[in-house]
Amino acid sequence: MKVLGISTSPRIKGNSDLLLRRALAGAESAGASVEYVRLADYEVGPCIECNACYTNGQCKVQDDYDTLLKKILDADRLIFATPIFFMSVCAQAKNLIDRGQCLWAAKYILKRESLAAKRDRRAMVIAVGGSKSKKQFESIRLTMKTYFDALDIGYTANLFVDKVDDRGEIEEHPSALKEAYRLGSQLAGTGAPPQEPTDIELM
Ligand SMILES: Cc1cc2nc3c(=O)[nH]c(=O)nc-3n(C[C@H](O)[C@H](O)[C@H](O)COP(=O)(O)O)c2cc1C
User: CA-CA-CA-CA torsion for 89, 82, 105, 51, nearest 10 degrees?
Assistant: First the structure.
């Protein structure tokens, strides 16, 4: 069981990053082998809408995207962590998501069957916002659902935390840390996945 955690926050030891680390610790405690990736260590530019992927399912932009995509498709479980920026995922996360257009094209235009779809692959989302707003979680849900659909990976859980703003402030939020650990350990399990993602919303 390989669990990949992708931290998309530009902030080192940011709140979503710290929750991701707890979730990975939970997954490890459940026996998984875990890998942590900091998106800022990779160069992933935006989709340039050249539509080259519509003919071959491949992204022609030359950067680190292919390296990351390989890790994502190899993983049995994915934990995607993002801060909330202007009611949505951060720009770094959005670049990665938009580059998933090649997967969307392979699936919906070229009608290719993804080999990864045949495996039991599952994903969860961690998102942290500074203000008190539950509405912003709706846009995260929609974006991530569409992305996970292109990835052919099951969407099993969300950990959403609002009213946590300063760097590292999440360390003073024991229930969020506890939930991250619990959800990470649950994600590494092989029991039947939920029909709808489990939602944990804390403030
Ligand atoms: C560019 C920018 C936009 C932001 N937009 C929002 C927002 O729309 N809603 C919100 O609750 N917090 C917003 N915040 C605050 C962050 O979500 C908050 O500081 C969060 O803890 C950052 O997570 P991180 O430490 O994982 O990066 C914004 C912060 C920045 C820098």
Answer: 60
